[in-house]
Amino acid sequence: MKKIFKLIRNRIYSDYLMPSRLKEYEMIISFLKKNGYRFLTLKEYKNFLDIENLKGKYLINRHDIDTDLLTAKAFFEIEKKYGVKASYYFRLSTLDIDFMKEIEEYGSEASYHFEEIATFAKENHIKSKDEIFNRMDEIKKLFKQNFINIESKLGYKLLTVCSHGDFVNRKLKIVNNKITDDKNLRKELEIIAEAYDDDIMNSIDVYLSDGVFSIKETTDDILKRIENKNVIYMLTHPRQWRVSWKDNTIENIKRFYEGIIW
Questions:
Q1: Domain containing 193 — which CATH number?
Q2: Which tens digits make up the pLDDT trace of 236-250?
Q3: Residue 116, exposed/middle/buried by CB under 10 A (0-12, 13-18, 19+)?
Q4: What does pTM read for this prediction?
Q5: How many domains does one find in the chain?
Q6: Is residue 13 part of a domain?
Q7: Host domain of residue 108
Q8: Least confidently predicted of 65-69, 88-92, 196-200, 219-223
Q9: CA distance 85 to 203
Q10: In this structure, what DSSP letter does residue 28 have?
Q11: 17, part of any domain
């Protein structure tokens, strides 16, 4: 009972009461820039891995835009202030074509945060991992359609993608990036990397995710963790850095409704 109460308390705090942490984000960016880190998009890092042995200090700076486009745009303004790059991944529910084009024109990366396994499971009321695998061809077809449609709206090639984690994935114990395990599909769509590919994850010195450090760690704690590390992979989500009552309420209601009807 205490654990449930703590989870509810933390959710209320992070979704509705937490003060803005954007100054902390800027502090981290400023610290890394001053300490000689080169900021890379995921596609740049993948290309580096393929052609050379990395020497020096690098940050793969990734944003998963699950909700809250306004805070995503605040991240972007901070990055422009310091002249650094990042990779932004947008769900179908957060696609902003004009903003994505602006990100690419600046020199950062804007691509697809996909979740077709979870979506397909919810829409078809599937609660079995085996059934998901049996219908994987349909799921891959849906992914391909969405991917091509986004590319056509953007007018540029998407080279990397990133899987989204949904409550359905946790229940079924299957991640969305099972889709991108298909090498032929990747080749067909010219996808060079998925954000959790083994060659990427095995090449880094430290992985930071705000799902872990958002409340438990201070900015000083984060800076200590990355001290003397050469290759840092940092993942952030807008809702962990600034409260959006509207977006968080909509997302929480949607999650509750989906849980009931699934």
A1: 3.20.20.370
A2: 999 999 999 999 999
A3: buried
A4: 0.95
A5: 1
A6: no
A7: 23-261
A8: 219-223
A9: 20
A10: H
A11: no
